[in-house]
Amino acid sequence: MARFRDFDGVTRKVEARATATSKNDRGAKAERPLIAALTDRAMPAGEDITGDMRITKLALIWWAEFEDTGRALNTRRRYRDIMDNYVCPGVGGLRIREATVSTLDRFLKTMRTKHGNATAKLCKTVLSGMLGLAARHGALDGNPLREVATIPTSHKEVRALTVAEVGALRAGLRQWEASKKQAGHYPTVDMLDVVDIMLATGARIGEALAIRWKDIDLKTARPTVTVNGTIVYMPGQGLTIQDHPKTANSRQRYFLPAFAVEMLLRRQIGQLEANRGTSCSPLPSVLSGTPTTSASSGAQRVTTSASSGSPRIPSERR
């Protein structure tokens, strides 16, 4: 029997028994199962993370925990891409104890040179989570990512469109849509209506396309729309609406200006006349009734702006 201090800080008696074949080996026979029992109590449940574990193995353990944190789908997808395509190929062969500040600093500087600051910062974030887990399990004395060089970030100045730019953009969109229809090529989404809802709310493209009729109230004296989601891509399922926007601050209710109310009423009447009801999105694909991609909407917006001769329009907020 021995006394053992458990993880909760309470010291308990641990006892093991064995049958001795002779009087001389009685102590050794009892000692071996007692040592085994103490070892089992000392080991943490699940995977035993040690300094000799490869970072590729640590990555899988960290990922299993990270998936339970409730992070947004796009965040999980992006972090998994960074882990699989940058972190594991770059430093996955190292053992945890070999993940020194200098080694990780060189890796992140290489990522900056080859792939840019944004990718390097994501690599640092993912690695920090992984090695933080290792430190909590006692495989490291601390998280070495805290000591690596800072990765600089650049922030573009936010600029609102001028009245003249808004007019030029809308005129260019009307001209572009008219030329497409005249040629028999119908756009997959009414870009002018998408831009109008973005102008009315300040929503990102994905958030604008994710607006549903249940988010809109046109019956009040001051009609409103609430941004409650965004468009995301789910592997194996395609595009879908995520039930929360990109950031918590994006979940806002907006009073709609007259031009947006007029556009939404027009689309509502059109969907009812087409026997599609109002259970779908106000801004679906006119071909399939499904949301279009943010990327294609952005490409169409930039192309239209350029072809119409209007000034270069700054990207929507990120």
Mean pLDDT: 78
In terms of quaternary structure, the protein is single chain
Could you list the spans in which at least 5 consecutive residues all have pLDDT below 50? 302-318
DSSP summary: helix tally: 10
Biased composition (Polar residues): 300-310
Keywords: DNA recombination, DNA-binding
GO molecular function, one term: DNA binding
Organism: Pseudarthrobacter siccitolerans
Walk me through what this model shows.
The chain has helices at residues 26-42, 55-66, 73-91, 101-115, 117-136, 163-182, 191-201, 205-209, 258-273, 294-307, and strands at 2-5, 11-14, 216-217, 224-226, 230-234, 238-242, 253-255. It is mainly alpha-helical and 318 residues long. The chain has 3 domains: 2-42, no CATH class; 55-147, DNA polymerase, domain 1 (Orthogonal Bundle), CATH 1.10.150.130; 163-179 and 187-275, Intergrase catalytic core (hpI Integrase, Chain A, Orthogonal Bundle). The strands form 3 sheets. A 3-stranded antiparallel beta sheet has the order 3-4-7, with no helix packed on it. Strand 3 and strand 4 (224-226) form a beta hairpin. It is elongated. Residues 302-318 have low confidence and may be disordered.
